[in-house]
Amino acid sequence: MPQIIHQTESNLNVKNIKYLIKQYQSPFWVYDANIISNKIQLLKKFDIIRFAQKACSNIHILKLMRKNNLKVDAVSLGEIKRALIAGFKKNSDEIVFTADLFDEETLSKIIKYNIPVNAGSLDMLKQLGSISPGHRIWLRINPKFGYGHSKKTNTGGENSKHGIWDPHLAIPIIKKYNLKLIGLHMHIGSGVNYEHLKKVCYAMTKSVMQINEKITYISAGGGLPIPYQLNEEPINIKKYFSLWNKAREKISQFLNKPIQLEVEPGRFLVGESGILVSQVRAIKNMGNKNFVLIDAGFNDLMRPTMYGSYHHISVISSKNREINENKTIETVIGGPLCESGDIFTQKEGGRIESRKLPLMEVGDYIIFHDTGAYGASMSSNYNTRPLIQEILIENNTFKTIRRRQTFEELLSLEQ
Ligand SMILES: *Cc1c(COP(=O)(O)O)cnc(C)c1O
């Protein structure tokens, strides 16, 4: 939910943001550790919370998760390295590697570190089994249907590349290499559609019965939504847990053993904890359209360009001028990139939209809310722009958890 920056209950308020604007070069990311802790509390009924770090993989955010007894999911060797630096242990189940394929280097490191694998293809099982018999594995199942807030985030069905279509075909491979099957996993976002969620839970129960192996864990995956709009309802976690818990009980009865219920959120834990602060650098009219151009681009915040995602926007004046929230003008917000898709107010498919925003002046600041997930972690160096700072507010202190990349660092790979 977008934080109202004029309230002081949240650390993401005008006073703190103005302080940070004085200290740091715009644009920059800010996270509030309190918000993350509160979101973790909401999930404490689950036996295991596994943070899907691709949503926000900063080492300091991972340390925060570890301090709160969370485990972590890694989807690349780079993410495994981050998890290890943050203190998560090898030779344990603290890190699970989820993917649909291995490259050679990742495969050999996973074996060396003895990290359980959540396999999304039969080829992964063969490649792993032939050099690491006995390795602990999960099966990621494609339940043959999907869901997701955009075609690009749908994670099931015939048009998804994720998961195993016929998990019973995995059993002979598992037997051949003596792989240790410990869990079944399904990552299908459900939004707040509880009817759909019932279908997912049913598909999990059915898969367990078909495979009929003595697993220890089931994972509900991630995909828990957050309200990006001011008037949106948050997900009912009680209901979400209760549906999964029922599935767990059925499975536990069927296998005649206790089953641990895992959940694997990314967005839900960090999305609302973060904002992007950027400065207005130019304002111009194009015919009837009012364009406000800022110093952050889609290389920093990719979601609007990639998915047509909505982020709530607040405005802070650079001077002592009052921002008049009631006097608004239809505004298109664009960035500095030499690319017409560099627009923060757009719908899926790239349709440019305008938004009612207060009248701005060059020098004012624009805050993009709820950018803690898939914000910094999706940034790139496009247009040769350095990665920007990340700042964490924790125990009333401001800590730089990533400094701005220098041009020398960026260019050194080519010299
Ligand atoms: C991305 C991902 C998640 C997290 O998705 P959210 O929508 O951020 O909760 C969980 N599990 C897997 C395997 C993922 O790839």
UniProtKB/TrEMBL annotation:
<comment type="pathway">
    <text>Amino-acid biosynthesis; L-lysine biosynthesis via DAP pathway; L-lysine from DL-2,6-diaminopimelate: step 1/1.</text>
</comment>
<feature type="binding site">
    <location>
        <position position="339"/>
    </location>
    <ligand>
        <name>substrate</name>
    </ligand>
</feature>
<feature type="binding site">
    <location>
        <position position="303"/>
    </location>
    <ligand>
        <name>substrate</name>
    </ligand>
</feature>
<feature type="domain" description="Orn/DAP/Arg decarboxylase 2 C-terminal">
    <location>
        <begin position="28"/>
        <end position="372"/>
    </location>
</feature>
<comment type="subunit">
    <text>Homodimer.</text>
</comment>
<dbReference type="GO" id="GO:0030170">
    <property type="term" value="F:pyridoxal phosphate binding"/>
</dbReference>
<comment type="function">
    <text>Specifically catalyzes the decarboxylation of meso-diaminopimelate (meso-DAP) to L-lysine.</text>
</comment>
<keyword id="KW-0663">Pyridoxal phosphate</keyword>
<protein>
    <recommendedName>
        <fullName>Diaminopimelate decarboxylase</fullName>
        <ecNumber>4.1.1.20</ecNumber>
    </recommendedName>
</protein>
<dbReference type="InterPro" id="IPR029066">
    <property type="entry name" value="PLP-binding_barrel"/>
</dbReference>
<dbReference type="InterPro" id="IPR009006">
    <property type="entry name" value="Ala_racemase/Decarboxylase_C"/>
</dbReference>
<feature type="modified residue" description="N6-(pyridoxal phosphate)lysine">
    <location>
        <position position="54"/>
    </location>
</feature>
<dbReference type="GO" id="GO:0009089">
    <property type="term" value="P:lysine biosynthetic process via diaminopimelate"/>
</dbReference>
<feature type="binding site">
    <location>
        <position position="307"/>
    </location>
    <ligand>
        <name>substrate</name>
    </ligand>
</feature>
<keyword id="KW-0456">Lyase</keyword>
<dbReference type="Pfam" id="PF02784">
    <property type="entry name" value="Orn_Arg_deC_N"/>
</dbReference>
<keyword id="KW-0028">Amino-acid biosynthesis</keyword>
<comment type="similarity">
    <text>Belongs to the Orn/Lys/Arg decarboxylase class-II family. LysA subfamily.</text>
</comment>
<keyword id="KW-0457">Lysine biosynthesis</keyword>
<dbReference type="InterPro" id="IPR022644">
    <property type="entry name" value="De-COase2_N"/>
</dbReference>
<dbReference type="Pfam" id="PF00278">
    <property type="entry name" value="Orn_DAP_Arg_deC"/>
</dbReference>
<feature type="binding site">
    <location>
        <begin position="264"/>
        <end position="267"/>
    </location>
    <ligand>
        <name>pyridoxal 5'-phosphate</name>
    </ligand>
</feature>
<dbReference type="GO" id="GO:0008836">
    <property type="term" value="F:diaminopimelate decarboxylase activity"/>
</dbReference>
<feature type="binding site">
    <location>
        <position position="267"/>
    </location>
    <ligand>
        <name>substrate</name>
    </ligand>
</feature>
<dbReference type="InterPro" id="IPR022643">
    <property type="entry name" value="De-COase2_C"/>
</dbReference>
<feature type="domain" description="Orn/DAP/Arg decarboxylase 2 N-terminal">
    <location>
        <begin position="41"/>
        <end position="270"/>
    </location>
</feature>
<keyword id="KW-0210">Decarboxylase</keyword>
<dbReference type="InterPro" id="IPR002986">
    <property type="entry name" value="DAP_deCOOHase_LysA"/>
</dbReference>
<feature type="binding site">
    <location>
        <position position="374"/>
    </location>
    <ligand>
        <name>substrate</name>
    </ligand>
</feature>
<feature type="active site" description="Proton donor">
    <location>
        <position position="338"/>
    </location>
</feature>
<feature type="binding site">
    <location>
        <position position="374"/>
    </location>
    <ligand>
        <name>pyridoxal 5'-phosphate</name>
    </ligand>
</feature>
<dbReference type="InterPro" id="IPR000183">
    <property type="entry name" value="Orn/DAP/Arg_de-COase"/>
</dbReference>
<feature type="binding site">
    <location>
        <position position="223"/>
    </location>
    <ligand>
        <name>pyridoxal 5'-phosphate</name>
    </ligand>
</feature>
